[in-house]
Design brief:
The protein is of the alpha+beta class. The protein has 2 domains: about 250 residues, no CATH class; about 70 residues, no CATH class. The protein is built from 10 helices and 7 strands. It has a 7-stranded antiparallel beta sheet with strand order 1-2-3-4-5-6-7, with no helix packed on it. Helix 8 packs parallel to helix 10. The longest helix is centred in the middle third of the chain and has 42 residues.
């Protein structure tokens, strides 16, 4: 059981206040960036002011979640620095409180925030991200319907039902319905559809031609299908790894393996979510050396700037290692954990030098 003392509460309040301020500043910046990006679609289809505002708001949870380790780094720097500027850390050290004890108090506050953010990432982020993407796609694609029976799209005079879109943008269980004079005349089913650059290649095709007297069924091994539905159009409906919970990622990885699909991106996202709490605590640990060096040498702005830049470097390295790992076939666990391990070593090294 974690015992919380008066010292823990005092340091924890400062850290949480710093995290709150850092989150507010980052959120304002992210809202502006997403708004500018989404303005390019404003006025297209039914993507009006309401849809724009809704998309911008619902897009924020995933972005905040992904950048939370950096938010914790900046927030810890701000919170602990306020204690240093008021000479409270000096008083603690003079009273015999060790550096390890002070860092431990900050970590307790960080641990509570990490638990809250993990739950946030498992329940709030998937729901908001799904609604943001589907809402935007629904507004930009006329005739779109999203139901349990699959994805419905309109292709000229035909209606297309897609059972599933795989990560390589191939489609499973495709039904194409052609109508004449409000009557269904042709129904084409394909087990799979892949794009060859110009047309879709349908596999295991079954076509039913419907007349007033009978239904004729024709079966083909393959057939070409020209459609306005290009991979770019349907790509917006693919599942984004960062927008899934760990449970859904696990299920989707299993499903992709059964369909002989590449699972690299999804495994990487799963490991990054699993290791996010450790990355957050490492970022908090990394903030400590800059705070205690500041007590002796002053220069709050310089120390804070260096700390923030290290946080940005962590984000870049974390994503870069992930992409490099995917390209060279490295295990997802290694790609996700290596940046965290490097920054843990750096944090320990800086702590030793400042101690």
């Amino acid at each position: 059981m974690m015992i919380v003392t008066t010292l823990d509460r005092h340091i924890g309040r400062s850290v949480m206040l710093g995290v709150l301020i850092a989150t507010s500043v980052l959120l304002a910046l992210l809202v502006f960036i997403v708004l500018v990006d989404a303005l390019g679609d404003y006025g297209k289809g039914t993507f009006g002011l309401y849809e724009l505002i809704k998309y911008v708001i619902l897009s924020q949870p995933r972005k905040i979640y992904e950048l939370f380790p950096v938010v914790m780094l900046v927030g810890t720097l701000m919170g602990m620095s306020s204690l240093a500027l008021n000479y409270e850390l000096v008083a603690m050290r003079a009273a015999g409180v060790s550096v390890t004890r002070i860092i431990g108090s900050a970590m307790k506050a960080g641990l509570m925030l990490v638990i809250a953010v993990v739950m946030f990432g498992e329940w709030v982020v998937p729901a908001s991200e799904t609604e943001a993407q589907l809402g935007r796609a629904r507004a930009l694609s006329m005739g779109l319907q999203q139901k349990s029976s699959g994805l419905w799209l309109r292709d000229g005079g035909a209606f297309v039902n897609i059972g599933e879109i795989l990560p390589d943008l191939s489609m499973l269980r495709v039904n194409i319905y052609h109508f004449e004079d409000s009557q269904l005349r042709t129904q084409t089913f394909a087990r799979r559809a892949t794009f060859d650059g110009e047309t879709w290649r349908l596999e295991d095709v079954s076509r039913s031609r419907i007349s007033t007297s009978r239904v004729r069924v024709q079966r083909l091994k393959t057939e070409n299908w020209r459609s306005t539905l290009t991979p770019d159009v349907i790509g917006v409906f693919t599942i984004k790894p960062q927008g899934l919970s760990m449970l859904h990622l696990s299920r989707y990885i299993t499903h992709l393996r059964r369909n002989n699909q590449d699972t690299g991106r999804y495994e990487l996202a799963w490991w990054q979510k699993l290791l996010m709490p450790f990355a957050t605590l490492v970022m908090m640990l990394l903030a400590a050396p800059f705070v205690f060096r500041q007590i002796r040498s002053g220069g709050l702005s310089q120390q804070a700037f260096i700390g923030i830049m290290l946080g940005l470097v962590f984000v870049v390295l974390n994503r870069s290692f992930g992409y490099v790992g995917l390209i060279y076939g490295l295990p997802a666990a290694i790609s996700a954990s290596l940046p965290i391990a490097l920054f843990l070593v750096l944090a320990i090294y800086l702590l030793r030098r400042s101690g």
